[in-house]
């Protein structure tokens, strides 16, 4: 499935319309007046601007964006330092309503520092989290790479994924234009290690564009929509699995019917030399890699129970001291007795104790 929460590409912006060139700063020691008498703000680097804003208590009136520093990281960026998640709340209070979740691998933009709380924006979720659930400042800059998601985007119409670096390596699969894949390690000689589904391989750096992003939190509404989509997907998978079990169950019956006419032998498990009722069922299913108990009594707990009305080919029909395989149309194939051997009879020839589905 998809990721458990939203991933967005980072947007690099500037603060309050100022373009900052890394490594440069104009230093003014005190406020100056323009010719029109207006006070000019001293510029001593972005840190001084933010500090002055906070000191004048006007931090609510400016937007703090992801502003690059000399080191290439971000002044107001924070990373989660929590378990699975921490609630993003509507107010700096544990009793306030939660409006989103900040997950263990999430990045966030710091909007405001309060006493014990920090107002953040992570993805579309904005609100307050306890300050001790965040990594901020110099520590955040130091660990930024640990939170990065590294991917490559394919720039060729068709690109081979190989089992090593170089065009002589074996082709494992082919990927297409604008598809994105996770980078699993460091590039080697211009080749990137990537994961494509369950396949780990290498792609040429000449035909991919490396990208870096961060994971972000999600709003309460986004979580609800994601969980609903996951539930729909799981339901579809269950339905698909159910549809697939019918042909497999029929394959079980087709295989079992090959041995009609072979002898019944008490205690036997041979489909050709002789088997009793449970030995017959056990051996048929063993052919399909399914291990069943030895006796009909123990088979009452195999798989899961369904009603006789729901019975499908391959289901176990259990009686007192007997078991057979449901064929459909109200019949079972079973090792009947010494006189009749392996054969077919009505599933309702006597009282049914249970119907169990094992595939």
Walkthrough of the structure:
The protein has 359 residues and is of the alpha+beta class. It folds into 3 domains: 7-28 and 38-135, Roll (SH3 type barrels), CATH 2.30.30; 148-213, Roll (SH3 type barrels); 237-357, endopeptidase fold (from Nostoc punctiforme), CATH 3.90.1720. Helices cover 18% and strands 33% of the residues. It is built from 4 helices and 26 strands. It has helices at 46-55, 137-143, 220-256, 277-286; strands at 7-8, 32-33, 39-40, 77-80, 85-89, 98-103, 107-113, 117-122, 125-130, 134-135, 148-154, 158-162, 171-176, 180-183, 191-196, 199-204, 208-215, 218-219, 269-270, 274-275, 304-305, 316-319, 322-328, 331-337, 341-346, 354-357. Strands 1-17-11-14-15-16 form a 6-stranded antiparallel beta sheet, with no helix packed on it. A 6-stranded antiparallel beta sheet has the order 21-26-22-23-24-25. It has a 5-stranded antiparallel beta sheet with strand order 9-8-7-4-10. β14 and β15 (191-196) form a beta hairpin. The longest helix has 37 residues, at 220-256. The chain is elongated, with a radius of gyration of 33 Å.
